[in-house]
Amino acid sequence: MFETVSANADLQNEINSLSMQMLHFNTKTTAAGFFDIDARLLFQIAGGGATYLLILLQFYNLNRNSSLT
């Protein structure tokens, strides 16, 4: 039982050390160095997809309404 507690304490210390290193280590994810991949880009992609879907829905409704008459 004491070995488990000691192993958990060692694991907790390693996790704390890793989290501190990651906090102070500035990383950037890029697409082959052309542009950064970050939250801003992901929001732009989601916004573009939503806009595309809205336009598609408008054309679908236009086509559906014109076929009813």
From TrEMBL:
<dbReference type="GO" id="GO:0030425">
    <property type="term" value="C:dendrite"/>
</dbReference>
<keyword id="KW-0675">Receptor</keyword>
<dbReference type="GO" id="GO:0008049">
    <property type="term" value="P:male courtship behavior"/>
</dbReference>
<feature type="transmembrane region" description="Helical">
    <location>
        <begin position="41"/>
        <end position="60"/>
    </location>
</feature>
<keyword id="KW-1003">Cell membrane</keyword>
<dbReference type="GO" id="GO:0050909">
    <property type="term" value="P:sensory perception of taste"/>
</dbReference>
<dbReference type="GO" id="GO:0007635">
    <property type="term" value="P:chemosensory behavior"/>
</dbReference>
<dbReference type="GO" id="GO:0007165">
    <property type="term" value="P:signal transduction"/>
</dbReference>
<dbReference type="GO" id="GO:0030424">
    <property type="term" value="C:axon"/>
</dbReference>
<keyword id="KW-1133">Transmembrane helix</keyword>
<protein>
    <submittedName>
        <fullName>Uncharacterized protein</fullName>
    </submittedName>
</protein>
<dbReference type="Pfam" id="PF08395">
    <property type="entry name" value="7tm_7"/>
</dbReference>
<dbReference type="GO" id="GO:0005886">
    <property type="term" value="C:plasma membrane"/>
</dbReference>
<dbReference type="InterPro" id="IPR013604">
    <property type="entry name" value="7TM_chemorcpt"/>
</dbReference>
<dbReference type="GO" id="GO:0043025">
    <property type="term" value="C:neuronal cell body"/>
</dbReference>
<keyword id="KW-0807">Transducer</keyword>
<keyword id="KW-0472">Membrane</keyword>
<keyword id="KW-0812">Transmembrane</keyword>
